[in-house]
């Protein structure tokens, strides 16, 4: 799923490890999200949205519209 | 079998330790069986079933270790691990089925059924490097 996760992370000068810790997932999971090798669950998508204080649609492209 | 990514998380490190703990007795029994006559005395006796149970117990333990890894990991690792095991299991079952029918109908030499476990790990090792997405 296309997303702006890497951009948002880099804006905050966070490493993948730091973002993973903030979200409660592994660095591998963050990398997989950024490289579109993993579509997040709704729960994880909401956690990401809450962390960056943005709506989910600002972070992830809706592939159905 | 392990990958670098599994060693980098606490749950991954626990999985590697558990895998070694379960692999060690399995390998020890198999090596002893293949290289010594230590188990010749139990052949055809009830103790043979005890030996069979002893060597299969680590296999069950390994399945528990895998389920524990999935329970303790995040959703990405969980999905990739599930894909790796499903594909490795499928490959091992396909080869075993192929060979079994080969024995029955094509004169292939008999191979012991316990080889399915090392065959599974061979398939896991071959397939895992190519399974890096959850999609």
Classification by helices and strands of chain A: mainly alpha
Q: C-alpha Rg of chain B, in Å?
A: 17 Å
Helix content estimate of chain A: 55-70%
**Quick one: which chains have the greatest interface?**
A-B, 14 and 13 residues
The span between the termini of chain A is: 13 Å
Amino- and carboxy-terminal Cα gap of chain B: 22 Å
Q: What is shown here, in short?
A:
The complex is a heterodimer of chains A (65) and B (135). With 65 residues, chain A is mainly alpha-helical.
Features:
heterodimer, A: 65 residues, mainly alpha, 434 Repressor (Amino-terminal Domain), B: 135 residues, 2 domains
How would you describe this protein?
The complex is a heterodimer of chains A (65) and B (135). Chain A has one domain (5-55): Orthogonal Bundle (434 Repressor (Amino-terminal Domain)). Helix content of chain A is 58%, strand content 0%. Chain A contains 5 helices and no strands. Chain A has helices at 5-11, 16-23, 27-34, 42-52, 56-59. The longest helix of chain A has 11 residues, at 42-52. Chain A is globular. Chain B is mainly α and 135 residues long. Chain B has helices at residues 4-7, 10-35, 46-72, 75-105, 116-127. In chain B, helix 2 packs antiparallel against helix 3, helix 3 (46-72) runs antiparallel to helix 4 (75-105) and helix 4 (75-105) crosses helix 5 (116-127). Chain B has 2 domains: 1-73; 74-135. Chains A and B meet through helix 3 of A and helix 4 of B.
Task: Lay out the secondary structure.
The complex is a heterodimer of chains A (65) and B (135).
Chain A: H1 5-11, H2 16-23, H3 27-34, H4 42-52, H5 56-59
Helix pairs in contact in A: 2-3
Chain B: H1 4-7, H2 10-35, H3 46-72, H4 75-105, H5 116-127
Helix pairs in contact in B: 2-3, 3-4, 4-5
């Amino acid at each position: 799923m296309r997303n702006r996760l890497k951009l948002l992370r880099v804006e905050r000068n966070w490493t993948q490890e730091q973002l993973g810790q903030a979200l409660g997932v592994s660095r591998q999971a963050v990398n997989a999200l950024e490289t579109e090798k993993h579509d997040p669950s709704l729960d994880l998508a909401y956690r990401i949205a809450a962390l960056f204080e943005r709506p989910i649609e600002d972070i992830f492209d809706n592939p159905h519209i | 079998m392990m990958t670098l990514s599994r060693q980098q998380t606490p749950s991954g490190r626990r999985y590697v330790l558990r895998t070694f703990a379960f692999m060690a007795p399995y390998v020890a029994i198999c090596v002893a069986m293949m290289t010594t006559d230590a188990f010749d005395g139990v052949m055809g006796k009830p103790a043979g079933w005890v030996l069979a149970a002893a060597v299969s117990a680590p296999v069950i333990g390994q399945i528990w270790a895998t389920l524990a890894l999935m329970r303790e990991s995040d959703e990405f690792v969980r999905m990739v691990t599930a894909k790796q095991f499903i594909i490795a299991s499928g490959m091992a079952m396909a080869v075993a089925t192929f060979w079994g029918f080969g024995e029955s109908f094509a004169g292939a030499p008999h191979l012991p059924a316990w080889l399915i476990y090392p065959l599974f790990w061979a398939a896991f090792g071959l397939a895992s490097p190519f399974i890096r997405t959850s999609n």
